[in-house]
Design a protein that fits this description.
By secondary structure, the protein is mainly α. It has 4 helices and no strands.
Length: 80
């Protein structure tokens, strides 16, 4: 005897898949994401030479990911 089916119909299986997808993934506007990528590149290009010159904030931001950059900037502005 086989295992009972978890979903009675293909439509139920598809609906459950879509629900799991909505719970774990976010839709975003491609144009907005492209703008973020361009801005990120510009920021990294500006920060790199400053980090090489020893600027303390630039050293923290250089080669960091987006979350780390935002956290670093938040702390930097809070302590000013």
């Amino acid at each position: 005897m086989g295992r009972p089916r978890q979903y009675q119909t293909p439509a139920a299986r598809q609906a459950a898949y879509r629900e799991r997808q909505r719970a774990t993934q976010v839709l975003t506007d491609r144009h907005w994401l492209d703008q973020v990528e361009v801005s990120w590149g510009r920021l990294q290009a500006i920060v790199a030479p400053l980090a090489r010159q020893g600027d303390p904030l630039a050293c923290q931001l250089y080669r960091a990911n987006l979350v780390t950059v935002l956290e670093t900037l938040t702390i930097w502005f809070q302590t000013r």
